[in-house]
Amino acid sequence: MTEVLIVSVNYRVPELAIKCLASVAAELDNMPETKMVVVENGSEDGSFEKISTAIEENGWQDWASCVDSGRNGGFAFGNNVGIRPALNSENPPDYIWLLNPDAEICKGAGNDLYAFMESHPKAGFVTGDEIDAKGELQPTAFYRFSALGEFVNTMRLEILALMFPKARLPKQPGPKPFQGDWLSGCSLMIRRGVFADVGLMDESYFLYFEESDFCLQAQRKGWQLWYIPGGRIYHEAGSSTGIWVQDEKSPRRPVYWFESRRRYFLKNFSPLYAITADGLWMLGYSIWKIRRFIQRKPDFDPPYFLRDFFMNSVFMKGFAIKEIKNT
User: Fold this and answer.
1) Which of the residues 112, 176, 250, 283 has an alpha carbon 20 to 30 A from that of 54?
2) How far apart are CA 108 and CA 85, in angstroms?
């Protein structure tokens, strides 16, 4: 019986996906009964053939497979392609482990997450440590998105963050486990019961905010979300999207990011709250831009960020959000 199913959604990073598979292969003896499915999400670059060939040539067929989603429907859609048939099978896995294809698991990572879940029955989610390309430890647990948080985080003023600590998004990794409001989907183990209570991930999100939304739905059903020091992965962030570029000028933010953010606030809160969140975001960011200019701070933000935000805000796009029924 498969106890853990790893689901990894590939989009135009087949070489990294193969490295991810290799890191899992090296850890199979240290993990519970584990299978892995790589969902090829409409890359149209030969990814499916490359990954399938690597699985065959390395003799990974007993535990790994690659499936073609048929189109690039986004992160939630791709994960659901891998999750849905597993949950509907005669012997569904106890846990689903979402793992980015640009991540490599370290020694003991899978067993760390699994052992924690086994000993904490109220835990619906668990994540661990993430090491970036520079070897630095990155946050994987966060406070909930909020209207106040939109102001505090766009202002980038340390005194505000100290005054309102729960408005600052990241919760810094530490030596002890702690609970978060939402967890990074880069490496995220989820108990099967969460899907029974919440359903699959919302495919109306193309990319970003989908794991925040999914965690919120589960939290409202009483499930706990945990970070643990362990379960370590190496992660080359943004390999598929290129949105996040550390210490460099970021590219222009794609429309789907704004749409996902707007959907998150409108789906989970009132229209008035969404208006407040958008207004405070723009106010905080405008003040930051003025302060950055006066203090001559480096500008790593995407070009036209404020203008693009306003054009995709509730002030311009209204309160309608698209709905896609997961089947």
Assistant:
1) 112
2) 27
For 29-72, the pLDDT digits (tens) are 999 999 999 999 999 999 999 999 999 999 999 999 999 999 99
- DSSP symbol at 250: P
> CA 82 to CA 80: how far, in whole Å?
5
252 C-beta neighbours (distance < 10 Å), count: 11
d(CA 65, CA 312): 39
What is the phi/psi pair of residue 269, to 5°?
Answer: -140, 180
Residue with tokens 């709250």: 273
Please tell me what DSSP assigns to residue 230.
Answer: -
Nearest C-alpha neighbor of 55 from the set 20, 4, 12:
20
Query: Can you list the alpha helix ranges (DSSP code H) found in the chain?
Result: 14-25, 47-57, 75-87, 109-119, 147-155, 158-163, 192-198, 210-220, 255-268, 271-295, 305-311, 314-317
Please provide residue 162's backbone torsions phi and psi, each rounded to the nearest 5 degrees.
-70, -35
Across 113-132, b (16+ Cβ under 10 Å) vs e yields bbbbbeeeeebbbbbbbbbe
* Maximum CA extent, the chain: 63
